[in-house]
Batch of 2 targets.
Target 1
Amino acid sequence: MNDASVPAHNLPTVQLLTPEGVFAPSESAQEYLPYLDRLGEDDYRRFYRDMAVVRRFDTEAANLQRQGQLALWVPSHGQEAAQVGSAYATRAQDHIFPSYREHVVGMIRGLDPVDILRMLRGVTLGGWTPEEHGNFHLYTLVLASQTLHATGYAMGMQLDGSTATGNPDTDAAVIVYYGDGASSQGDANEALVFAASYQTPQVFFIQNNHWAISVPVERQSRSPLYLRGTGFGIPSVQVDGNDVLASFAVTAKAMDDARAGQGPALIEALTYRIGAHTTADDPTKYRSPDELASWIARDPIVRFRTYLEGRGAGSDFFAAIDEEAADYAADVRRRALEITGPDRSVIFDNVYAEPHPLIDEQKAWLDRYEASFEGGDA
Amino acid sequence: MSETTAVTTTTTTTDVVTPAEASVTLTMTKALNTGLRQALLDDPKVLLMGEDIGPLGGVFRVTEGLYAEFGDKRVLDTPLAESGIIGTAIGLAMRGFRPVCEIQFDGFVFPGFDQITSQLARMRNRHEGELTMPIVIRIPYGGHIGSIEHHQESPEAYFAHTPGLRVVSPSNPHDAYWMMREAIASNDPVIFFEPKSRYWPKGEVDFTEPGAPLHASRVVRTGTDVTVIGHGAMVSVLLQAADIAATEGISLEVIDLRSLSPVDYGPILASAEKTGRVVVAQEAAGFVSLGSEIAATIAERAYYRLEAPVLRVSGFDTPFPPAAVETHFLPSPDRILEAVDRALAY
């Protein structure tokens, strides 16, 4: 693991599609093959469509940031397969706790990505109501904090009897996303402790994109991250995160098991952050062009396109997707530019659920202060 | 465990007190226990979480008997991880539960500090009012018990400084019962500081009437010469000081803050304007403290009625010392009276 560009070959990484787009399941993938039976041709094309659309959206959002329309952008370029595959393994009743890079997971759960841009444009600290957007919870910027919220939420599902009843249409589970950097946080480890102790219906989905801003994964862990879960007594697996089918199948099994009362699981998805950490970052300062090139050669979208072409998808299909993605990005850009700031009352609104004299006094004072400039001679 | 009907001063923590029955004399631990039990009975969404709160009943026995009565789905003995306790409580609250978390000792809250201040306190705001966080975090706090490091601290200012949190501290068993009930009923997160040194003295608990709302400060002894203000265990110190002062012909008005965020300034300013002299007392270090904030606010709002600057009596700006010298560190009745004399000298 000393060279981030070369996955260790002695690991039982689950892979269904080779980087060349050939369906050749690894030995470790055999138990996951039945989960592919759930997918039809429309699903395959939907996977491709979502990966292509979010990549185009990602480019557009980065452009918006460079043009001063967003305070920051958090690219997901390169991680599409890990996110799309795992997102399609969730069911309507499941709850998703993202970190802050899982844009396409939110889109698959019904979130308008413009709501994500609202937060990054600085007009809200949140952006959406999880229950009205596919149970896709708010982004969490303090790394790994959400792992504990997810575990607590999963404990709540156990306590209110909405999981492990034997009804797959209603039994629920939680999936929480975090990264290789966040895996070092105390909260990520405490969440594993609680999840193992209470056997929560929960999947920990680590996207190991190999870089925590400028620090390589080797600084976070000297052993593969999935072994962290094993050490806590949680069944854990490493998957090729640039293989959308493997990401789907592995997550589908883990979520099924969680909903059925078999407790938590951990998935380490090996992927790569092709872009910068955020638009404030400069990855050329800390990683080599060769390493980047080696991962570009394993691009998840190119890989899946090759596979779909082998299944008969023609150039018309891909051209239509490209056009849809361009339209999608243009629509997001147009609506992002229409985002307006909130009234100043948002400073004071919803700090507390119940009346609070200090907040009320300060809000009234600011109103008087601002009013003193309005309609006056000055 | 027995269904006690005739509650007397012989009540022990293993007896169940039924609030409907009487005004009774209880320790603060039993009053808190009764409040928690009633909350568990009244609302199936109320959960207790913490370290050693199950079969043991907590290291101070505040939850004694509740695990046996309500079971492990209502009273959760958690792994030993404070951030884990608070963080999972947040997830449970998102799911509609009303967790009451016990932090075992004041000095052990800091592993959970990030979850409290960066997450819990802001969740409602971040969700633009679509989410409530009805979580109570109980923290036994303060000195006077001769214990070791991290077991005698008063960290309330950190939490009072954090927007989104409410912070309260009862000084007596009656308030402990009612403030716990109200804190659990609140839809905001409440940090509930329990004065350890007041856990065991008994006091009357009137189950029919709370007497004051959760966030009200209260005049607990009327006087005319100097106003002395404090919370938690400090209130009994102030009352002792008032007794001594009375023998010297000095009349102290004692105010129990009860709520540290928000602070109820009505009774405080009324008293300050009446006496013109104010001493604020606290076990916490004085620098950037509740006492500092209250002194500044009194100075701003009652300036022309003051005869003397508002004085503070605090723990020193040092780590809480070895217990062998804690009596020199903690504000005592004599330290209060020294400040009273200084206030009167203006």
Target 2
Amino acid sequence: MKYADTLMPPEVRRLYYHRLREMTVEEKIRMVSDLHETAKALLRAGVKLQHPHLSDDEVEEEVRRRMRR
Amino acid sequence: MTQQEILLDVARRLEGLNIEWMLVGSWACSTWGRPRFTHDVDMLVALRAEDIGRLVSAVQDDYHTTPEMLADALFRGTPANLIHMQAAEKVDVWVVGDDEYAAASLARRRRATVSGACVWISSPEDAILAKLRWLQMADTRQHYDDALGVATVQWGNLDLAYLREWADKLSLTENLGQLLREAEQATS
């Protein structure tokens, strides 16, 4: 499989890696945590769309169940 | 609580017990490479048999874990879970035990301060080696991509002699060679 980054123009790739190198540990940890929260929010919205009759507690239970898959 | 809050909370409790630890797995790779979504927080912990009771006491107000699970982590190498009961978020605890490489990697951990808390992170070289070890056990593309992300972002800053030395000892020479070639190509 071709490595996806090699499909970027070299100057874009260099900027991308430079920015990732520049980020602090704190920024990266926050970003990973935010990604997790965003994924949960999207999943919550999907569960509510699929099952509009569920209570908030039931939605949370379903989100937890799916996150553990 | 968010994953970050739980990570910092567990970190403070381990520091309070003077138990050495560091972030490993996808969190370490996200720190040195590309941040990505992950379900759990993985920590490598220098837990001794005499620490098990202290650790359970220090976390049991908010987290579910058992002395049996921590003993298995120490003596069998299986991960122990710390599950935050209110948030239902999970921290997987891997124990150094008698794993020579795990002990060597913990000795090279890097310190950072996050929101005023001390956070220890696996070095970039060890983030790569640990992922290649996982690849050896479970051949999934994600492990390779995580390692490659670190190698490309940190290209030029890696201790290649250390990487090669441990890759030889851990029978990862071929995988490491391929990874470094791809990282070099991606950064050229």
